[in-house]
Amino acid sequence: MKKKKTDRNFLSDALRLPEDVVKGESLLTFIGRSAVRIENYRGILFYTDTNIRIQAKAYRLSVSGSRLSIRYYDKDEMEITGKIETITFE
Questions:
Q1: Which of 14, 29, 53, 54 could cross-link 46 (Cys pair, CB 3.0–4.6 Å)?
Q2: Cα separation of 49 and 4, whole Å?
Q3: How far is CA 83 from CA 27, 28, 34, 46, in A?
Q4: What is the pTM of this model?
């Protein structure tokens, strides 16, 4: 039985756009355990050197560890550095 394509899947295929862009999902890129790049986030909710909480479209990300800092951020992307121990979705 064929699976019916949703409007978002059709749009993604027709325009040849990545699904994360069409759905507004966050994209996380890890650089070992010392850095994570987060794309497509909405805002910074909480920031200490042991915990950083980020608001994404449909959930919150919590980055825990030690010596955490936000290396850079702009409206689309940020990079968190330090000793990253856990990342949870809330």
A1: 53
A2: 46
A3: 20, 16, 5, 17
A4: 0.75
